[in-house]
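for the recovery benchmark. tokens below, seq after
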């Protein structure tokens, strides 16, 4: 009779060990090796966790081969085109889309909570004006932990959802204040009459008093198409299974530290250019390449094993096909070309890179495709977002994913403190 197990034989000793296979509802099954060290006296070895499932989760599903992404089983293509970012936040936190009334209440609560404690505003004065907004964001979110206690009763849904709604609503304000501080202009307070995404763009771009740029026909309001583009970018970044920064958030959750320092740890991890920092590096790289004529030379460098130059925005640990989010952003770019002044030179360089890389054996054999970061920068630039704010935008989108994963970890009665072992090769 078929047994859903795997048997391992130690060929040195002839001993055999049997482990259960746990079936997934979608995607790869796992081999349950929780007793492996007790059974064998040995550790498994998997730096970077290329073949390791760190947890069981019901939140987000990715199929790297098909280029598929689902939040709570909803395809990203539907959420990005048919729903708002706030609806996606509600879906991730509650495992279902909101009713009209629930969305109205949720929207109102997020608007109310967008304001920061006055004490937190003064924190920004401590930072030099050339501080990278990611450093300011991480420090400010840690400081947020001093204003709210963390004795959360995970059996009490209202308590932990309030903690989640608070951080989701305050992150855009902190990010916008970090930017305004970096350019030495007065902060624009959240405006309770504006929705989540319009409010963020206003806090970023308005003049004191909330007026937009002066233009021949009076004050420029933020265009509907800009709000929709920004909202789509937030939705595309909302969650992504057990990526590096989410793994950090879960590890900090496992020690019992304050939820907001788990989020600030996620912000710090996301900053790296191998992860969320790639979106800023992509634009810097396109600007550095400078023209379509120079692309070939840089592709050559990216392929050279002795040159640590990498094509930013290319490759992914999971997607061995087009990143579905990249596809949606590419479509959005084409759509916005007419309505927003997208930087056609940068887009031409990006298209040239894509054209060459997608047909070059080095990239094809390694299944290196454009990822979400490859396209987001051109659109963000058109939305008058400076490069230094690209990764903070990623943080705004991803905070709901991090806090949802934090809640799932805390509600998992089998969860344990993260404490991997090592292969010791010292003296
Ligand atoms: C994000 O995990 C997530 O889900 C992350 C994310 C999310 O939503 O949370 O999707 C967001 O972080 C997207 C990825 C953004 N990062 C970049 O665009 C930076 C450039 N990409 C690479 O650094 C790299 O592709 C990673 C970090 C994304 C993935 O690294 P892996 O899976 O560890 O792959 P690897 O480093 O082992 O590379 C495999 C091979 C190597 O060549 P060989 O040693 O086999 O000869 O591919 C090469 C690498 O040198 N390679 C690249 C490359 N990426 C991988 N070569 C040139 N340019 C690249 N970008």
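predicted aa per position
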């Amino acid at each position: 009779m078929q047994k859903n197990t795997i048997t391992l034989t130690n060929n040195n000793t002839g001993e055999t060990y049997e482990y259960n296979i746990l079936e997934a509802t979608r995607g790869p099954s796992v081999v349950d090796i929780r007793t492996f060290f007790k059974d064998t006296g040995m550790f498994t070895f998997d730096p970077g966790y290329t073949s390791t499932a760190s947890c069981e989760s019901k939140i987000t599903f990715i199929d790297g081969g098909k280029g598929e992404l689902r939040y709570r089983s909803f395809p990203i293509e539907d959420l990005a085109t048919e729903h708002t970012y706030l609806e996606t936040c509600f879906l991730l936190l509650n495992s279902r889309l909101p009713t009209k009334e629930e969305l109205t209440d949720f929207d109102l609560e997020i608007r109310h909570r967008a304001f920061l404690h006055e004490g937190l505003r003064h924190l920004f004065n401590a930072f030099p004006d050339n501080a990278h907004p990611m450093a300011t964001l991480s420090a400010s979110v840690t400081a947020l932990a001093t204003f709210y206690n963390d004795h959360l009763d995970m059996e009490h849904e209202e308590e932990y959802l309030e903690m989640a709604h608070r951080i989701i609503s305050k992150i855009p304000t902190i990010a916008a204040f970090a930017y305004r501080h970096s350019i030495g202009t007065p902060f624009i307070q959240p405006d309770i009459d504006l929705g989540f995404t319009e409010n963020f763009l206003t806090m970023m771009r308005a003049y004191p008093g909330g007026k937009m740029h002066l233009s021949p026909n009076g004050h420029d309001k933020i265009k509907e198409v800009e709000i929709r583009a920004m909202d789509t970018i937030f939705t595309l970044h909302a969650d992504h299974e057990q990526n590096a920064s989410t793994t950090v958030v879960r590890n900090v959750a496992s020690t019992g530290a304050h939820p907001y320092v788990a989020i600030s740890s996620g912000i710090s991890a996301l900053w790296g250019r191998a992860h969320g920092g790639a979106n800023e590096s992509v634009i810097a790289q396109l600007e550095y390449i400078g023209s379509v004529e120079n692309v070939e030379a840089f592709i050559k460098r990216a392929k050279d094993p002795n040159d640590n130059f990498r094509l930013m925005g290319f490759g992914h640990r999971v997607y061995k096909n087009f990143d579905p989010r990249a596809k949606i952003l590419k479509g959005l770019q084409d759509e916005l070309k007419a309505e927003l002044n997208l930087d056609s030179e940068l887009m031409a360089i990006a298209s040239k890179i894509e054209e060459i890389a997608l047909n070059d054996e080095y990239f094809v054999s390694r299944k290196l495709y454009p990822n979400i970061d490859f396209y987001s920068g051109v659109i963000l630039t058109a939305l008058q977002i400076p490069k230094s704010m690209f990764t903070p935008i990623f943080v705004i989108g991803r905070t709901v994913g991090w806090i949802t994963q934090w809640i799932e970890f805390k509600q998992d009665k089998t969860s344990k403190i993260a404490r991997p072992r090592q292969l010791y090769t010292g003296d």
